[in-house]
Amino acid sequence: MNVKLAIQRSFLFVFLGGIFAWAISCKDGFEDETYTAYEDTPIGLYLKNNTEKYGLWVQILEKADLYNTLNIATTYTHFVPINEGVERYLKKMNLKSVDDMSTEQADYLVRYHLIRGALVEFAHFQSGAINELNATDDNLFVEFREGGIESIYLNGVSRFNNYDIKATNGIIHSIDDVLTPLVATVYDRLQEEQSWSLFRELVELTGHKDRLATVYTETTDPLGNPIQQRFKYTAFVVSDETFAKEGIRSVQDLLDKLEAAAGGNYTDAEHALNKYVAYHFLAQQRSFTDLGAFPAGEYKMNLQTLAPNELVKVSDRAGALLLNENVETGEAIAFKQTNIACKNGVVHEVDNWMPLFLPEQVSVIWEFTDYPDIEANVSQYRNSSLGSTYNKSFLQNELTSIIWSAQPEYKSNVLTYRNSRDADGIFYKDVLNYDHLRVELGESGWIEMKSPTIVRGKYKVSFVWPSHKYSSNTGIAAFVLDNQMIHARLVISNSKTDRVLTQAMGTVDFKETTSHTLRVLSLDGKLITMDYLKFDPVD
């Protein structure tokens, strides 16, 4: 969701210096740095002034050594449970009082309820994940239920009872119950829900369990330094009851339905059973709201699944979000449950066994930052509320989705992911999802990447990029798609003003439904900025 950046206020405060740290210590690092501004109060002090409602949460803040942290001049969004909710939590955890909690437990609990650096206001709530990660690096989920403003829940378990309580350093949203920090993976959810037993068996049989049970992947960068990558997934789960409606009550029944022989290597990506299971997963997290985020002017789109070259179609029919709608028969797949939050993604339950489906042509936006391994390596991926511009430069072979050859070969800072702040002008408000790629290959260098799967057919191709103002022509590039030159010379800069530009690249005719390879050649070695390539169907 889009979140407005906090507007800086003028404060009268005493601030003795130091840096923000979550590390646990024997003393709150900001104990002596509380400030007030006129009659207003910061978050920590506001909660302490309202102990009849939030006194037990204040005790948890103090136990975590984070009370005074919430009184410093930094922007926060804090979800605060009332006393009755804390009491229910303590009872659930078999704790007699807050004193029985460890400092570590209290610290993690507070950070799970806290978003630093952004004001997430009620006006920006949507049904689905809050884009801004909390202080434990997780998404929190908002759920709208029947009953209007009185029936909005956080993570599906805690009802909001008050919104947008203003403090000098942020916003408080009051909730009924303490949130239990999310630890369950997508696979854990499959294990917990007995009505998904056959789907879970299929996941195990086809070798997809490991990825769905993993939160952090331990690996090394090209220099041998240890790093953690966090991949997230979207699962479209089928219940035993839904399978049974199609006469599917066992793995053998499904094999018969797919006209596939029993036996063989079910972990082979080309096996019919493996493709069927992989088809129910996306390689990135998409909440229910994200699934309905269509390109401007569109009401349908195709999404790449984990099954090679297989797409799931999402469409809007009179305000209802559907999957794989058949334009001839009107048949479509609906959702039974949505936004079941997981530590490594989100689960939606569908009302159909969801076999592979070939959708029609739709407009396709190939955003160059929209790769799972870019998201997994970027700490501020598509954050709309940055206080300063974020850059992440990749090393050669650090990504598998993008490769390049620079001149000279050892050139540094060849590929940079940039997420912009509102002060960055067009690089924030006019590019897609606040981010873009910046490429400096040296003269005659090249960069190459694969598109998402695109349905066969004829398309008009357009390139969209943020063009920076420069006195002379710079960033001159050529574009090659599937080994065919589609634009021989494009100047990235312009002499008028920073602006987002679009260049028609011609028409292509794809003979099969598959992905495609784009190579961008640097003709002058200067900065090339890239936002997305758009494919519009041609009748």
Proportion of strand residues: 25-35%
Largest sheet: 7 strands, mixed
Q: For the terminal residues, how far apart are their CA atoms?
A: 34 Å
Radius of gyration using CA atoms only:
25 Å
Low-confidence sequence ranges? 1-27, 32-39
Task: List the strand order in the largest sheet.
Answer: 2-1-7-6-5-4-3
Helix content: 10-25%
- How many β-strand stretches? 29
Global geometry: globular
Question: From the helix content, strand content and strand pairing, which structural class follows?
Answer: alpha+beta
Number of helices: 13
Structure, briefly:
This protein is α+β, with helices and mostly antiparallel strands and 539 residues long. Helix content is 17%, strand content 30%.
Task: Write out key terms for the chains shown.
539 residues; alpha+beta; seven-stranded mixed sheet; five-stranded antiparallel sheet; 13 helices; globular; disordered N terminus
Structure description:
The chain has 539 residues and is α+β, with helices and mostly antiparallel strands. 17% of the residues lie in helices and 30% in strands. Strands 2-1-7-6-5-4-3 form a seven-stranded mixed beta sheet. A five-stranded antiparallel beta sheet has the order 19-22-27-24-25, with no helix packed on it. Strands 11-10-16-15 form a four-stranded mixed beta sheet. Strand 5 and strand 6 form a beta hairpin. Helix 2 crosses helix 3. The chain is globular and about 70 Å long. 37% of the residues are buried. The N terminus is likely disordered.
